[in-house]
């Protein structure tokens, strides 16, 4: 199977979901190998590169894309199977951006206090050992942390003609910033416009749940993914299936609403797939779900609600496409 | 070592943290084996026992205790190491209580809509197989789920002379409803009054994160725990250490505030223990924490933020008391 | 009619709703003239008295009371008609307490930022002109503001055996901090315990809606009020009637929940009084209510929803007791 | 002075802020007389027109515009002085749209409950008496309510290339749904794109604060306004000045964040205008602001914080343009 390479030039970076012309047309079934820059557009390369000087929050998370998926129409389900995520640089960067993040007043949770000290951390990648190294900046400490690559942003064009910043997680996916968006996962996104117009970016070499300081170990990434299309069946909110779990992602404010969205979507999904009455699905999931917070720092907060497939009635979401894609991905192994 | 048995009579049940006379005085170092009734006081025994008829939300989560810990003074740290949690009945119960839970309007998130159908589910315990069986009520399905016993409520008397319902999670612990409160965990609670006055209850044979429908697999429980006391060092919010993680629990509303509380507490705890500058602790934890939601249904919502000890600087919280208690617990093995 | 004077000694101050023995027993129909200290217990008397040194947030809003109302039983409605509020000192105080207030991180909305500068402002009362004078502390400006006396806290003992700090607004009233609690208003509170056990305090010589910095022009107050009792009819949340409006007060978090509580209570109240279908009451009130925020700074946030009686169907809440109390109050004019 | 009339055809309606080509170019100083359709695009004309059949929430609040203001550049301040708002039909409509509004679960605050009954109310306008008549639908009652015309949406194109639905209130204005947006008010909006690209719509013949049921007395409107431009000085959030008050409008979630935004903006505005230290502005405003909720039903919740100019240091925002526009508006009286 052919693999389509996509490496954008800097002037091809896009900073919105919706509102940009397609960079490429792809057919369902295509395998793409996409390079994406880091959240800062590569602007933070040493600890002396401060975000207050080099980062404009209106233009972060540069997207690679959008890609026009042939045949995709509103109401369809875009399926993106993440085959592999490979760090594309030998270092990642993180920053405590003034008035951005979870432990500071922000432009929404406004206070009159002074900002936290603007600080940049650089994480060296040890490719063979599969680690990135944290090096303290205001004290002394170094520690290697396992690499666990993920994509902070995976999204399609929004509904209703909206165009949203790539800093936003919403119904259309976007900047959900969940570690669940890793290799082996199949993402399902409702299509809102012809061609779906998906894009990806904001690679993280690793991230804690919540993304507390507002930024992960941000790094350029090479992502291999398979694009598929299911006619109809558009989920209202992003969903993920991996080998062990079904997941729904809610993104809103306050955070209990993010959870409500994700939990209700998962209840409805399981009820639809299994024939369980919605009250029974509600009860069963109450006893088996995990509910990891994804981010508490973006324009909306994101929460994942997930259930182990082994504890559910036998279900095959979207006709079992995840298992089929896993098999297809394995056949790419020799790439 | 002697084990002190405590089985309350029904008139010894308490429904508050604070405000009750001590049921027993115990010395630090004591091993207690405590029976606690389920959240409903045993009122839901068949699927025909409906919560609207049999449950008064002002009097749920009957507590076993309070216990007066000798020598405990305000500012001290109460240490409770959970040795074993054993289901004390052969069934657990769960219910969709009208206007209570995460997928319905409540007395706070008030709507004018009709309630969801009042439904009770009974889970038979298969003790040998270590499972409870979900049986659908409005449709057809049965599935065995692994037992994972935990305590929904572990708390002390509040500060400032307050008395709080056993439905409330707060600084003093209480109804945090996190699956992390399981055997093998050591809980740390700040002491607010002489004797600490701790109590436990609300056993769950298992619970999903979020406790979505408002109730877990509620069951009477026999809990074996070791009581210890550290002079001073009172944490502002409940903390847990187990063999792999340090955890802080925040309980407030909206849920982002619960997370902020827990995350800030963990950042401060790690900074204090390790000597890391708080900005470095903030950064390091941003990349390594897990952030599972505990409950979205109680008087306050609870969030756990946890970090793998293996990824932190070498630390020994409270002089390494967790490891020491684990050893002591093992020596009780022949009980 | 006799007027009962009550001036507590300092050791008679109470700091909770519930949990205190009654200071006095009063009969329905009684007129009380109650002195209450300011929120700081008089600790801030000059601009050099800083809250960080002199205020313990566990012991603010000293209450005058509790008063045991003869005949009051759970489910009854306590009626308190505020006849007159007179500043009892010649100055009020306000403070930006560190990590307390609406424009700073707090113990709930935790950040890692430094606190705002701890500052105290003293407002001189010009009794004849009916003003208090703001005098800037970090810059130069003075301006006289009209006095508009109100009570920050009016409450009864909570349900379920709870005891709550006098910093808390809740179902039982308490620290709602609304300027609507002024002379001429009749407050309705559901009775939870025998004797109702009401108390008042936290006088404000004036306050903006929201109480943004966390404190109003805090001042000792002499309050004249008439106590009445309606058997049954306990409202779930505090209500107020004045000569022009019906009001409900919701106190919770997040603030939309406070609004939901107040709005639903007012819809239900009007529907009950008028016979309007709840959907029609919902619609009519949607077009006529005012919704002033009361406080965004306390343990719960408070919102008032109010409707002009003139735009409602003819209603006489609690058998027209407000009009009757207004008449009775006028007859006290010669006091 | 010439008055420019603008009456869009239906195919000229726009449903977004940003993303639409300008309908007209206007010079600063222009007087416009703009017709706008109601929120439903005129689809609800009798009580038998139900929103579930006739309203698509992706396409409500049709905008008249956008208007390109000559000379407007990013960072400038667009000034819109509302001279007159005249109901353009003889009736208004309101509806309880399923899963939309403040007293129901929504697409964000998701519950599993059934929707409220889909109901439409038609309000006849009595032009001479200046009233609209509420007529109950599920019970019997009629009452005339005073007309108080306002615009639910006044906005410009967003920053960062975003395009937002006309259902959204945000930094760019939009669907703030505050009764303060009435004749006599001067609105200030930060310009984000060349030409500002402002539009208006969503006229309300009257609305309660909070817009509880999700819709006001929605009506087609003829709005006379003067367009002005101040170079530079762009406020971060919408501001209003009228003859008595300065106001800031915050729109976010949860609602305390909306308040924080508005309050911080007003504190900063007053500090900038007056030279007061920000802590003194914070204190003074704490004692004088009003804080009416605007809406609790839109994509973001909106809160107005306002201060009486008479209680502030002498200030002349934007060089006193409001007073000058009032004078200009009076000179139009003979229109």
3D structure, described in words:
- The structure is a homotetramer of 335-residue chains.
- Chain A is of the alpha+beta class.
- The first copy, chain A, has a single domain, classed as Acetamidase/Formamidase-like domains (Jelly Rolls, Sandwich).
- In chain A, 14% of the residues lie in helices and 34% in strands.
- Chain A contains four helices and 21 strands.
- Chain A has a nine-stranded mixed sheet. In chain A, strands 3-5-16-11-14-13 form a six-stranded mixed sheet, with no helix packed on it. Chain A has a four-stranded antiparallel sheet with strand order 7-8-9-10, with no helix packed on it.
- In chain A, β13 and β14 form a beta hairpin.
- In chain A, α2 crosses α3.
- The longest helix of chain A has 20 residues, at 255-274.
- The first copy, chain A, starts with a strand and ends with a helix.
- Chains in contact: A-B, A-C, A-D, B-C, B-D, C-D.
- Chains A and B meet through α2, α3 and β21 of A and α2, α3 and β21 of B.
Biggest sheet descriptor of chain A = 9 strands, mixed
Percent helix of chain A: 10-25%
Radius of gyration of chain A: 19 Å
- Biggest contact: A-B, 62 and 62 residues
What percentage of amino acids of chain A are in beta strands?
25-35%
Shape verdict of chain A: globular
Question: What count of structural domains of chain A?
Answer: 1
Widest β-sheet, arrangement of strands of chain A: 1-4-17-6-15-18-19-21-20
Strand-pairing-aware structural class of chain A: alpha+beta
Determine and state the CATH class of chain A: Mainly Beta
Q: How is the quaternary structure best described?
A: homotetramer
* Mean pLDDT across all amino acids of chain A: 97
Distance between the termini of chain A: 10 Å
SSE sequence of chain A, one letter per element: EEEEHEEEEEEEEEEEEEEEHHEEH
Figure out the total of helices of chain A: 4
Reported CATH architecture of chain A: Sandwich
Number of strands of chain A: 21
Protein name (chains A, B, C, D): Acetamidase/formamidase family protein
Organism (chains A, B, C, D): Nocardioides lentus
